[in-house]
Amino acid sequence: MVDPERSTELLWGARSRRGLSLERIVRAAIELADAEGLAAVSMRRVAERLGFTTMSLYRHVPGKAELVDLMRDEVAGEEPAAGADRRPGWRAELEAWARDGLALYRRHPWLAEPSGTRRVPGPNAVAGFERALGAAARAGLPPAEVVAVVTLVGGFVESAARQVLETARAERRTGVSEEEWWGARDSLFQHLDRYPTLSRIYREGGYDTPLDPFEFGLQRVLDGVEALVRDGTRDETRDETRCAVCGKTVEAAATGRPRDYCSRACRQRAYRTRKS
Amino acid sequence: MVDPERSTELLWGARSRRGLSLERIVRAAIELADAEGLAAVSMRRVAERLGFTTMSLYRHVPGKAELVDLMRDEVAGEEPAAGADRRPGWRAELEAWARDGLALYRRHPWLAEPSGTRRVPGPNAVAGFERALGAAARAGLPPAEVVAVVTLVGGFVESAARQVLETARAERRTGVSEEEWWGARDSLFQHLDRYPTLSRIYREGGYDTPLDPFEFGLQRVLDGVEALVRDGTRDETRDETRCAVCGKTVEAAATGRPRDYCSRACRQRAYRTRKS
DNA sequence: CTCTCACGTGTATGGCGTATACATCTGGTA
DNA sequence: TACCAGATGTATACGCCATACACGTGAGAG
């Protein structure tokens, strides 16, 4: 059903050979999704918006999964807002990348919507990845850690975007704020005295002015990366190395092994990965 | 279509009033999802597995969305593996919580699968949340930050679980390892010289033995939280406070305002949130 | 013993992705 | 100019999905 091979071919192939229809289909689908969400994107509706029959789409796109892949990569190619701050340094660059990512999700909220299709990276998505790699690489980390850092930040952006968009959607749906909505869920909060910490934190005002999950999380994540960077540059001659799985600093064993793991669990994981 | 009110009522209500069917339905649906994925869970298939007609389910469950809510909360109530390490201290507890979360995703991979339904928290999910709040609260952070930390870690676990399960699924599907799969995508990698950093990192072996995204990311995230904790306890008498949006440390302005923001962007965001 | 009503069934509707067979349009060659 | 092959669009149909609605039916309450 889902054919990654065909998807990559479409994503990377010479797009406008005949200059015509594939792009119009993708664009129409994006407009539909922007207006009504991913759920509204059906082959029927896209075709009808273009004034064609449903099956005509299949002359240009193998199926819906590939269409969604193309939609994703198409919007990934949009230029980030030029006005934003572009300070130098790996942290500022990574931060800007993350912020551009969130802006992309804001422009196209359906990106955060679940779709059964597996994601195949297209040229525009890879270009974004490249940009993030460049930023992370300037931190001076070893290559595998550069990749892991970008994966981490990228995953965080998606997760935070989902949270932010979810609450935004909840507010818009009924016209009431998130706070009021939860306030009305008596049926839920009736039971909350079973949870002492939760209700204590609620009483103490932990929910009154919630921190922005994106801004807060981003700073924590980048702080974590920064700790890793500092840890690595601190002292090159020292007899310590990094766990090859999770990156924790570990003192080299007396035996002088070339690579160490911070725990049995991590060692096992490394072996399991290699066995393939 | 999706009715949160009804969902909460079902999730929190006295479950086995008549002792029988709702639980059997949920359990059958979970078995189906465990075996064949969320996509295989249709009202037909669930009913047929129980030896009833499709419509009989609607006597016990208002619709599919609510069924999925119930499935999620049901598995959220499973006991975490008892053998795991249970060291004290907020960091170890939060780490254990995250690891239990990942284990849950491993037992029920469909949790990470996208489903159009919005998630309504049930009692078991809230119990997990309570546990994480307790751990984070022991770090001595102000309440709003405790909530934000748990949100961050929870979001990370979901994101990392998705990544881990995705690669695991990719390996199983064709029987080849992730590495070989990507190696076979010539049509993709042909174009990769357009991306200098990416190909340099690839050449330098950044992809040869990738770090475990869960283990690596978890340590970074917790390092970030730890930096926040240390920052807060370091010096209470100092004339500094935290940005009310993103948690960055900021020096109090000369004017002695009660609450400060680290940047114009964060101040704007705070106002926008309050306007509701 | 009857009434009632929760529970299960049968049938139908409208939407979906897409397989297959057919029609039409177009451009290159004879 | 005539013709034909391939590209492009169309018509119809199938099987799946969630679910609305009207209808039985059987066990417990009065």
TrEMBL record, chains A, B:
The keyword Translocase does not apply. Pfam families: TetR_C_1 (PF02909), TetR_N (PF00440). It comes from the Bacteria. Residues 42-61 bind DNA. Keywords: DNA-binding, Transcription, Transcription regulation. Coiled coil: none annotated. GO terms for biological process: negative regulation of DNA-templated transcription. Residues 19-79 form the HTH tetR-type domain. One of its GO terms (molecular function) is transcription cis-regulatory region binding. This is TetR family transcriptional regulator. It comes from Streptosporangium minutum.
